[in-house]
Write a structure and sequence with these properties.
Dna Ligase, domain 1, 5 helices, mainly alpha, two-stranded antiparallel ribbon
C-alpha cells in the first residue's frame, strides 16, 4: 500500500466517525426535546401558584387555536403557545371554544382555561332590569302552623319568637 492510500483511508474513517457522532448527538437532542414537549403537553403547570392574576380575554368567532395560544401567551396566561396548540388538539375541548369574554387566572392550567372557554358565556343581568315583587294583601298572607314550622326547621331547632297566627279574613 502506498502512503497516499493509507492517509486517505484514515481520513475517510475519521470523517465517517465524525458524521456518526454528529448524527448520534442530533438524534439524542431531538429525543430529549420531543420528550420534554410530550411531558409538558400533559403536565404543564400554571404560570403562577396560589390565587394568580385574573385577566380578561375575548375569544372571537373565527379564532384558531394558534391565534388563541399566541394571545394567551402575550397576556401572560401560558408559557408556550406551541404547547397550548398541542394541548388543545389533544383535549376533549378541541374546537369547542365559544366566542365571548372570559376571565381567566394565571393559576389555571391550559386544560382549565379550555374548559372555561368551551362553556357558553353567562349573560350578566343589566342594571336596568328591575324585578317587581307584588305586595302581599291580607288575603294572600301565608299561615304556617307550629307543626309545619317544626318539620321545616328540623329537630333540635326552636323558634326564637312566636307570634299569634292571624285570623283568616272573611
Amino acid at each position: 500500500m502506498k502512503a497516499g492510500e493509507i492517509i486517505g483511508s484514515i481520513l475517510e474513517t475519521i470523517i465517517k466517525l465524525a458524521i456518526f457522532i454528529f448524527l448520534g448527538v442530533l438524534i439524542y437532542r431531538g429525543a430529549l426535546m420531543a420528550y420534554d414537549y410530550g411531558y409538558r403537553v400533559f403536565t404543564e403547570a400554571p404560570v403562577s401558584v396560589g390565587e394568580g392574576r385574573i385577566i380578561s380575554i375575548e375569544v372571537k368567532e373565527d379564532m384558531s387555536s394558534k391565534e388563541l395560544g399566541e394571545m394567551l401567551q402575550q397576556k401572560g396566561l401560558i408559557r408556550d403557545s406551541r404547547i397550548f396548540i398541542l394541548q388543545e388538539l389533544l383535549s376533549e375541548y378541541h374546537g369547542k371554544e365559544t366566542p365571548g369574554i372570559y376571565d381567566l387566572s394565571t393559576a389555571m392550567t391550559a386544560e382549565e382555561m379550555l374548559a372555561v372557554m368551551s362553556q357558553e358565556p353567562v349573560e350578566e343581568e343589566s342594571e336596568d332590569e328591575l324585578v317587581v315583587i307584588p305586595e302581599e294583601t291580607e288575603e294572600e298572607e301565608l299561615y304556617i302552623s307550629e307543626e309545619d314550622a317544626d318539620s321545616m326547621m328540623g329537630e333540635g331547632t326552636t323558634l326564637i319568637e312566636e307570634e299569634a297566627a292571624p285570623e283568616p279574613a272573611e
